[in-house]
Each structure stands twice: as structure tokens, then as C-alpha cells.
């Protein structure tokens, strides 16, 4: 996409290009902020991806960034780069609403650790991204902020729970967005909107929230499965954001005491393609995306082989036990403060999980589930070693029809089965990326890469090879213009 001069407009440039341009004084941080604010003004009314935009604050941050450049001071890697943050993550002076009307006034007094890290890296925090209430759907809408639409098709989900983040990135409102993921909430929205999304290794990016008067005891599944990570338009943007977000932080129950090395892989590695784990038959478009990615990685010198890996299916099934049984303990609060969409979706999800684990799983089943989790982690780490990654679907289906989880128990069973690649990864705690492979039948397609713990470098390198061979285009929002 180019402007009248034949150059890409500022809003269509990568975070790396923007940071370099500001550093080299090709353009100012203020010009960048103005360009993105205009893009938000033009685009967001149709998508409702960003829900709390404060232009004066964004321009003030940009002006401060320009003063730093003029003074010749050292610049951070995201200096002046617009970044969106999610409504369920604390940002100083903004409500951590979680999309819940009763919490609309819950203004954070300080930043969560990952937001503080982005701020330290020089990011211009420009708007809050929408999510479903309590962030527990693969769809994005709530009673406080309304529904977010997919920039490619209003009839299909932008994904969830970081749907606002993915829609904002894909449509050019920001080059980078912060998200979080306990069951695909970074990777699936990136897939649905044609962006890049990275779920880091557990503990790499701190989830520590600022302390308050009321102490919150985070459920075990949240401690062991929920991570923060970046979404971006390019792999380089995600790499840049990840490096900024890495936060050694012992306040986080799984936080690291020091920053692990995140260097580049020096050579191609082995790629194991896992197409199916016996839970859902993949759609033809999903199979085609896997074929493309496997072929491209082979061209790049990777050793590609098709394998069976049943432990991924077992991990996906464990997800519906370990997460849902803890969500069950939160249902009084969800019933009190959540909206109808969350209640309906969760009721159908509990019914689907009951087909595997029974109506009310026992404490014994829950304990044995966590014990089995450790065994599966060990087995997968041994299989991957230091030289193998996995190539899987992101979902067995293309992006779902909007609000498909409200269409009845039968459809929800299909959704849960299709999302096995999303569910398996959080149980195991490994890093995973969603990488676009083009547009099929008017909707984005993509694949997932999974690597060993703290081997994000291997994923980023492979994702770069896929990206280099993938035609990329921004959504035209033709459906919005025609409406």
C-alpha cells in the first residue's frame, strides 16, 4: 500500500522502520503519532478494535520522544513507536475494565510489568484494545465496549480474547499490540486477522500486576498457563516487541531471575509437521496452509518430516479439565459481573468438556491431570531437543463465523475440537507463533510453530522464512465501505 508519492504511508510501516526513521530524523515521533491517530480515526469506527484512545496523551508522549532525539540522548528500541495495550492488563491512568461495566471505573494506579517494559522501551502507548468479558472467548465483544469486527469480514470473528489487538494491527492502527494467551488468545486472533502473534515461554514475560489494597490469589491454571506477548504486522515487529517485553521479575510466580539469551539460530533445524491428533479433521484451507509452509521451510533448507504426536491431543484434552475446573470456582463472579455471551459460551464449553471428563470431575482426576501434565512436558522437551520445532495448524477450521460459540452445544463441541493446537500449548508452557500464509477465500490463513522452552529464536527464524514467501496485503475493509 502506497501514498500519492509512491511511498508507504507511515501507518503502513513496520515498527522497525518507524523506530529507525525517528532515530535517523527522517520523520519525527510526532509525525508518526499524527499518522496513526488519523488512521485510527478513519478505521476504528468500523472495527471497534481500540476502545480508549487519548490523542492529546499520545501527542504529548510523541513530543517528549522528539525532545529526546533532539537532545542526542540514547534511544530505546521502540522509541516513538505506537503500541496498543489490552483492557485486561493494568496501565497507569486507564481502567482495567476487562470489558465489564461494573469495572469501568477500575483505574490502575501503575503499570503491569509487561506494560512498564514497553514504556521503558520507548513505546508510545496509544489506545486500549478490546476483548471479551473476562477474556474467556475466542470472540471479542462485551457489554461495556461492544463488538469488535474482523477487518477482512464482518461475518467472521477477529479472534479472542486479544481480538481488538489483532484487528488494530492488521488494519494499520498500530504496528504492535500487547496481548495475553491462556488458550490461544494471542495466536488465534493473529490467525483470524492475518497478523503475527507470539506466545512466549512461561515466565519469559512477566504477568505481574501492580499491588493493590485487595490481594488476588491467581488460580493455578493462570499461574502455569497464562502469558503476555506481542502481536505485530511483521515477524521483525514481533521480535522487536518480544525483546522489549522480556521482564525478569520474581514477583511473578513463574518469573525468571535473569534474562535468558534470545540469540538468532545459526542454521536451519528439523521441522516436524503435525496435522491431526484425532480430535478434528482439518479444513481444506488449513491443509493447504500447512502444505505451503512445509514446502517453504523445505526450500529454506529445513529438514521437514510428517509425524504423529499424540501427546498434543492429550495435552489439549487436559486443558479443558485443568482450566475449566478452575473457571468453575470463578463462576459466581462471572455470573454476577459477566455478560450473557460469556455465560452462554461457558455453559456450552462446560457441557462439551463433560463429554471427556464427566459432569463434575473429581479432585483425584484434577490432581492426576496436573501430574500427567509434567510427564507430557518432559516428553515433548526431549523430543524437540535443541534442533527441532513443530509445524501445526493454528485451528482445524478457518476463522469462525462471528459468535459461533453462541450457536448451541453442538457447535461449541466442534470449536473446542478444532482448537486443539491452541489448547495444547498452554498446558505444556512452550513458546508458539501464529504466522500468516496468505489469503484463502477472502479470509486469512496461517500456521503455528511450536518450539522448546526459551527457543523463541528458532520460531522467529522459521517464521521469517515463511513470511518471506507469503504475499502480504492489508485488508481493504470493503465490507465496511459498501455498508
How is this structure best described in words?
This protein is of the alpha/beta class and 483 residues long. The chain has a single domain, classed as Alpha-Beta Complex (Amidase signature (AS) enzymes). The protein is built from 16 helices and 12 strands. A 10-stranded mixed sheet has the order 2-1-5-7-6-11-12-10-8-9, sandwiched between helices. It has a two-stranded antiparallel ribbon with strand order 3-4. A hairpin with a 3-residue loop joins β3 and β4. α5 runs parallel beside α6 and α11 crosses α13. It starts with 14 loop residues before the first helix and ends with a helix. The model has no long low-confidence stretch (mean pLDDT 95).
Short recap of the structure:
With 483 residues, this protein is α/β, with parallel strands linked by helices.
How many domains would you count in the coordinates? 1
**What's the CATH architecture name?**
Alpha-Beta Complex
The H-level CATH homologous superfamily, spelled out, is: Amidase signature (AS) domain
Largest sheet: 10 strands, mixed
The helix fraction, in percent, is 40-55%
Determine the structural class based on helices, strands and strand pairing: alpha/beta
> Could you name the ranges where pLDDT drops below 50 across 5 or more consecutive residues?
none
Can you identify the CATH class? Alpha Beta
**Radius of gyration using CA atoms only:** 21 Å
Write the layout of secondary structure elements.
Layout: H1 15-23, H2 29-47, H3 55-70, E1 82-86, H4 113-120, E2 124-129, E3 141-142, E4 146-147, H5 163-170, E5 176-181, H6 187-193, E6 196-199, H7 220-225, E7 227-232, H8 235-245, E8 270-273, H9 284-299, E9 303-306, H10 310-337, H11 340-357, H12 363-384, E10 388-393, H13 409-418, H14 420-428, E11 432-440, E12 443-450, H15 456-468, H16 478-482
Parallel strand pairs: 1-2, 1-5, 8-9, 8-10
Antiparallel strand pairs: 3-4, 5-7, 6-7, 6-11, 10-12, 11-12
Helix pairs in contact: 2-3, 5-6, 10-11, 10-12, 10-14, 11-13
Amino acid at each position: 500500500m502506497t501514498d500519492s508519492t509512491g511511498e508507504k504511508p507511515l501507518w503502513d510501516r513496520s515498527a522497525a522502520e518507524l523506530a529507525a526513521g525517528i532515530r535517523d530524523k527522517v520523520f519525527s515521533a510526532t509525525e508518526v503519532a499524527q499518522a496513526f491517530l488519523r488512521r485510527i480515526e478513519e478505521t476504528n469506527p468500523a472495527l471497534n478494535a481500540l476502545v480508549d484512545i487519548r490523542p492529546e496523551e499520545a501527542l504529548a508522549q510523541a513530543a517528549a520522544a522528539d525532545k529526546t532525539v533532539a537532545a542526542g540522548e540514547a534511544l530505546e528500541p521502540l522509541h516513538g513507536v505506537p503500541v496498543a495495550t489490552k483492557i485486561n492488563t493494568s496501565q497507569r491512568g486507564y481502567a482495567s475494565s476487562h470489558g465489564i461495566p461494573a469495572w469501568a471505573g477500575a483505574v490502575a494506579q501503575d503499570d503491569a510489568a509487561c506494560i512498564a517494559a514497553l514504556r521503558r522501551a520507548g513505546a508510545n502507548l496509544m489506545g486500549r484494545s478490546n476483548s471479551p468479558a473476562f477474556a474467556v472467548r475466542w470472540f471479542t465483544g462485551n457489554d461495556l465496549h461492544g463488538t469488535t469486527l474482523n477487518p477482512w469480514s464482518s461475518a467472521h470473528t477477529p479472534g479472542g480474547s486479544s481480538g481488538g489487538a489483532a484487528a488494530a494491527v492488521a488494519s494499520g492502527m498500530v504496528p504492535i499490540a500487547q496481548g495475553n494467551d491462556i488458550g490461544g488468545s494471542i495466536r488465534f486472533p493473529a490467525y483470524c486477522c492475518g497478523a503475527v502473534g507470539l506466545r512466549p515461554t512461561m515466565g519469559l514475560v512477566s504477568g505481574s500486576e501492580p499491588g493493590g489494597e485487595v490481594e488476588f490469589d491467581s488460580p493455578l491454571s493462570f499461574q502455569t498457563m497464562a502469558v503476555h506477548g506481542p502481536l505485530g504486522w511483521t515477524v521483525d515487529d514481533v521480535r522487536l516487541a518480544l525483546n522489549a517485553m522480556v521482564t525478569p521479575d520474581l514477583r511473578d510466580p513463574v518469573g525468571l531471575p535473569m534474562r535468558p539469551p534470545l540469540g538468532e539460530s545459526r542454521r536451519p533445524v528439523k521441522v516436524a509437521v503435525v496435522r491431526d491428533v484425532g480430535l478434528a479433521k482439518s479444513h481444506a484451507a488449513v491443509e493447504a496452509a500447512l502444505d505451503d509452509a512445509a514446502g517453504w521451510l523445505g526450500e529454506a533448507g529445513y529438514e521437514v518430516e510428517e509425524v504423529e504426536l499424540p501427546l498434543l491431543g492429550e495435552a489439549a484434552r487436559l486443558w479443558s479439565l485443568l482450566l475449566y475446573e478452575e473457571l468453575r470456582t470463578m463462576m459466581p463472579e462471572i455470573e454476577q459481573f459477566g455478560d450473557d455471551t460469556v455465560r452462554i459460551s461457558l455453559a456450552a464449553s462446560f457441557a462439551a468438556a463433560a463429554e471427556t471428563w464427566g459432569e463434575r470431575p473429581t479432585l483425584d482426576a484434577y490432581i492426576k491431570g496436573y501430574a500427567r501434565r509434567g510427564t507430557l512436558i518432559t516428553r515433548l522437551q526431549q523430543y524437540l531437543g535443541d534442533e527441532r520445532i513443530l509445524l501445526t495448524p493454528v485451528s482445524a477450521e478457518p476463522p469462525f463465523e462471528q459468535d459461533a460459540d453462541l450457536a448451541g452445544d453442538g457447535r461449541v463441541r466442534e470449536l473446542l475440537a478444532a482448537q486443539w493446537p491452541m489448547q495444547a500449548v498452554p498446558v505444556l508452557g512452550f513458546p508458539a507463533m501464529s504466522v500468516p500464509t496468505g489469503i484463502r477465500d477472502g479470509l486469512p490463513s496461517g500456521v503455528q510453530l511450536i518450539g522448546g522452552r526459551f527457543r523463541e529464536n528458532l520460531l522467529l527464524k522459521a517464521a521469517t522464512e515463511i513470511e518471506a514467501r507469503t504475499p502480504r496485503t492489508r485488508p481493504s475493509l470493503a465490507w465496511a465501505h459498501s455498508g
